[in-house]
Amino acid sequence: MNEYMTKKLDSVLPLVQKPARYIGGELNSIIKNADKITSRFAFCFPDVYEVGMSHLGMKILYHQLNRREDTWVERVFTPWDDMEMQMKENNIPLYGLESRDPLKEFDFVGFTLQYELSYSNILNMLKMADIPIYSKDRGENDPLICAGGPCAYNGEPIADFIDFFLLGEGEEIWEEVLDAYALHKKNGGSKKDFLLKIAREIQGIYVPSFYDVSYNNDGTVKEISINTEGVPEKIRKRIIVDMDKVYYPDAFVVPFMDIVHNRVMLEIFRGCIRGCRFCQAGMIYRPVREKSAENLCLAGENLISSTGYEEMSLSSLSTSDYTQFEKLANGLIDMAEKKKVSLSLPSLRIDNMSLDILKKVQTVRKSGLTFAPEAGTQRLRDVLNKGVTQEDILRSANMVFCEGWSNVKLYFMMGLPTETDEDIVGIARTGYSVLDCFKKCDSPKKANRINITVSVSSFVPKPFTPFQWEAQNPMEELVRKQQLLKDTIKTRAITYNYHMSKVSCLEGVFARGDRRLSKVIELACEKGCKFDGWDEFFKYDAWMEAFCEAGLEPEFYSRRKREFSEVLPWDMVDIGVTKAFLQRECEKAYRGETTPNCREKCSGCGAKSFGGGVCYE
Question: Taking CA 370 as the corner, what is the angle to CA 501 and CA 49, rounded to the nearest 5 degrees?
Answer without folding.
Answer: 65
